[in-house]
Amino acid sequence: MFMTIRKMQMLLIVLLIVSIGLVGCGKSSSTGNGNGNGEKSADKITLTIGHFDIDDNGAIFRDALEKFRKEHPEVNLVEEAIPHDPYRVKMTTLGASGNLPDLFVANGSMLLDYIPKGYVGSYNEALNQDAEWKNGFLPNSFDEFTTDGQIYGVPTAMFSVHVIYYNKELFEKAGIASFPQTWEEFTAAIGKLKDSGLTPIAMGNKSNVPVGSVLFGTLADRYTGTDWFKAMKEGTAKFTDPEFVNALKALQELSKIGAFNPDINSIDGDQARTLYFNKQAAMMVDGAWAVTNISRDAPEDIESATGMAILPSVPGGKGDPMSVAGGSGWSLAFNAKLTGAKKDAAISLIKSVSGQEYGRVKIEHNGQPPVKVKEYDQSKLSPLAVDYFKLMSDKKFSPIYDIQLAPALVEVIYKGIQDLLIGGVTPEDLAKKIQTVRDTQK
């Protein structure tokens, strides 16, 4: 009898241990997915997002991320945010390892690197399932992020990366009645501004991107035309072609006649903007985002005196003088590894920063959203923002080099431009160097 009771006690202990184990297993299997009764786990879905401040107008993007957190308490959103220039370097490095965040800001050049490696997910299914979201974007918004019919990026904006901001009062004092309409008038105006003791054009090219992106891309298109760019990408045109070499010559000539601040390769965009704000420079070349910088940060007399223009036509140029480098520029992409609830959460976040409400807030803060904003308060726009939209009303977009070309090619062009500005390389030799890199990509 004693042995029987002993055995029964042991059996009860074993059953108790087994039942505890089963309860534990049940809790584990429901994490993030719910259990058989449809109950959700208390554990959050963690999403990482890599970005820089893509909105330079009141931290709109960061505000939108915070709003998403409040509306989606089930998501633990972890930001990996760093400034623009280090971000570009970091994402190029991560492109070699594939250790990308769940969501990340990417330009077309980055995607050209990531897509063949299988790092990026396609938006086609999500866009096709939500026609209202898909049709809400401006025409050609996805062009820079589409490969073989698959869309890999949702644009963060649609804007010109090339605008010449100039001080009308300083122009008048230098004897320049209106902004030049031809290249000859443009170089003559530079001479007059220099003679009056001003830096004609303030630019900060420390990171090697600004001059190449906001000035040379448009200047090159003036000489080559967009058809040449397309042919170059297809391999039927070369960087050693005369029209491209002429564009390099024109840029170097601007430097030789003293168009830029001498320390152009040593300072950044903020420092260049300060030169303009302090009336030490009569012009600065920047993207549409500078509308916000000027409206927000410039002294009132600078803001009111600022006019906007684009590069004039060039002699013998094959490009459309009414075009400027522009487009979507940057996009939000997601890691191809995402599935299930994490992917659903990622798509929800993307929609929250690419819909009508986000677009309305962005445009009312002088931004350039990628969506067709149906209603917004025009009184909230700065006078400069109104002028920008007027300037762009009849312009076409030409390719942005650092968006549409592979990272290695962009690097050799933009670093070469740094050397070109200080006379460290001839236009012909630089063109050969660029073409050599292009040949290795075939």
Characteristic key phrases:
D-Maltodextrin-Binding Protein, domain 2; 442 residues; 20 helices; 13% strand; alpha/beta; disordered N terminus; 14 strands; 49% helix
Set down the secondary structure blueprint.
Elements: H1 2-29, E1 45-51, H2 60-71, E2 75-81, H3 84-97, E3 103-107, H4 108-114, H5 124-129, H6 131-135, E4 146-147, E5 150-151, E6 154-155, E7 159-160, E8 163-167, H7 168-173, H8 183-195, E9 199-202, H9 210-224, H10 226-234, H11 242-256, H12 269-277, E10 281-286, H13 290-297, H14 300-305, E11 306-309, E12 323-327, E13 330-334, H15 340-352, H16 356-364, H17 383-392, E14 396-398, H18 401-404, H19 407-421, H20 427-440
Parallel strand pairs: 1-2, 1-3, 9-10, 12-14
Antiparallel strand pairs: 3-13, 4-5, 6-13, 7-12, 8-10, 8-11
Helix pairs in contact: 9-11, 11-20, 13-17, 19-20
Biggest β-sheet strands, sense, barrel: 5 strands, mixed
- Estimate percent helicity: 40-55%
Named CATH architecture of the largest domain = 3-Layer(aba) Sandwich
CATH fourth-tier homologous superfamily of the largest domain: Periplasmic binding protein-like II
Report how far the terminal alpha carbons are from each other: 87 Å
CATH topology of the largest domain: D-Maltodextrin-Binding Protein, domain 2
Task: Please mark out the parts with pLDDT under 50 across 5 or more consecutive residues, or reply none.
Answer: 1-41
Radius of gyration using CA atoms only: 27 Å
Number of strands: 14
Instruction: Give the CATH level 1 class of the largest domain.
Output: Alpha Beta
As for the number of domains, it is 2
Oligomeric status of the shown chains?
single chain
- Approximate strand percentage: 5-15%
**Number of alpha- plus pi-helical segments:** 20
* Order of neighbouring strands in the sheet with most strands: 2-1-3-13-6
Q: Which class do the helix and strand fractions yield?
A: alpha/beta
- Give the overall silhouette: globular
What average pLDDT do the residues reach?
A: 88
